[in-house]
């Protein structure tokens, strides 16, 4: 059985990878991935064979990984964040049915929601929903429905892919939908370049978020009705009573 | 400034911790935590001072951490999974306002949703909602509303704290609510003891999940309308078209 690992490398910085992820990458012959992610890990895994494909070539990238494994090599397909959250784990398992000699193992990592939350403080302490604003592979109506329902149920909401060149007004649209149920003064936060050079965090209200321009390297956090600012950090209380035993 | 770290140690197994988490624990003088979690890391960090409090003593545990830091020690408060998902990061930041000499830094980790997803396959590839069924600190009506809204919007749903001695029928109640919008044949998965001895995964339909008894070490995954079983794994497709470039 040829083993292929699908490895989440975390937000970017080497140390934010799990020990298991680093060990798997050290043990393998070939590291396959999107060009940007391969560049992030390259210096830490010298002597490996690196294979890359640009964006939107995900199917080809997976097939390339399986072809290498079929040659008897140990292969790791890397993804930023977690391989299982908007990552390649699903597609690898699907395409893997064509390569029954290969066994796919998923190695979890810290996705941007968790990495970004740590920078902001503790916005995700309670129930939350993760929604991608990219409508490349999802009908916009479905995204709208999710934004509305998540806001109605007072979830903390974390938005991935909040913007791109073609979708410069999607964050504004999303805020308008969430404002149907969430108060304009709801505490929100942005984190850019999590665990990479130029990491930046910013707090604001939902009303202010609506008018912000963000780039595709930004993760957006919209609080629930209890989320507050504590010493400049974004904190969602879990409900513990202070001063008594909870 | 005295530094206190709030560290997510991942699902349990040492290697599922981030490199950063391990480095922080190695560098600190005192490791504070819930007894069970301290026992999980103890053997890997010999020579440290360990302080524990049992469950439901969370406020006291935080105060203990700050008191140690005030003595000039470097302190790490550990949580299982991620410190920022139903973890101690929020309470530490809140209580930290009473200790302005201390600076709280959150170190993210792999929460059970991500760790369990990797075991099952790739259930969380697309938009998902995380809901705790524990009503110790949250009114049950709020939990009900979230289950209904998340199901209505066709989120993949991951359930934490699906059961306990006092709440043996909560998972059944939750399934009934989700069945308002989700089909009985929706693909579901359970993972117990993620990254620990006795790790176990199981796939079933939502209808079957309704009649299962699970314990508090189990994380439950309920698929969206597209989630499927691929070679015995639970996979939510992202929408990539097979055989063409997506």
Q: Would you report the number of β strands of chain A?
A: 13
Mean pLDDT score of chain A, rounded? 93
Low-confidence stretches of chain A: 240-246
Across the major sheet of chain A, the strand order is 3-2-4-1-5
Name the chain pair with the biggest interface and residue counts per chain.
A-B, 82 and 83 residues
Q: What is the beta-strand fraction of chain A?
A: 25-35%
- Quaternary arrangement of the chains shown? homodimer
Helix content of chain A: 25-40%
The secondary structure category of chain A is: alpha/beta
Largest sheet of chain A: 5 strands, parallel
Task: Report the end-to-end length of chain A measured between terminal Cα atoms.
Answer: 50 Å
- The ordered string of helix (H) and strand (E) elements of chain A is EHEHEHEHEHEEHEHEEHEEE
Q: Categorize the overall geometry of chain A.
A: elongated
Given the structure, what is the number of helices of chain A? 8
Keywords:
homodimer; 246 residues; alpha/beta; 5-stranded parallel sheet; 5-stranded mixed sheet; 8 helices; 26% strand; elongated; disordered C terminus
Structure commentary:
Two copies of one chain form a homodimer. The first copy, chain A, is an alpha/beta fold and about 250 residues long. Chain A contains eight helices and 13 strands. The first copy, chain A, has helices at about 20-25, 35-40, 60-70, 90-95, 110-120, 140-150, 170-180, 205-210; strands at about 1-10, 30-35, 50-55, 75-80, 100-105, 120, 130, 155-160, 185-190, 200-205, 220, 230, 235. In chain A, the strands form three sheets. In chain A, strands 3-2-4-1-5 form a five-stranded parallel β-sheet, sandwiched between helices. Chain A has a five-stranded mixed β-sheet with strand order 7-8-11-9-10, with helices on both faces. In chain A, helix 2 (about 35-40) links the parallel strand 2 (about 30-35) and strand 3. In chain A, helix 3 packs across helix 4 (about 90-95). The longest helix of chain A is centred in the first third of the chain and has 13 residues, at about 60-70. Chain A is elongated. In chain A, about 55% of the residues are buried. Mean pLDDT of chain A is about 95; it is low at about 240-245. Chains A and B meet through helix 1, helix 3, helix 4, helix 5 and strand 6 of A and helix 1, helix 3, helix 4, helix 5 and strand 6 of B. Strand 7 (about 130) of chain A pairs antiparallel with strand 7 (about 130) of chain B.
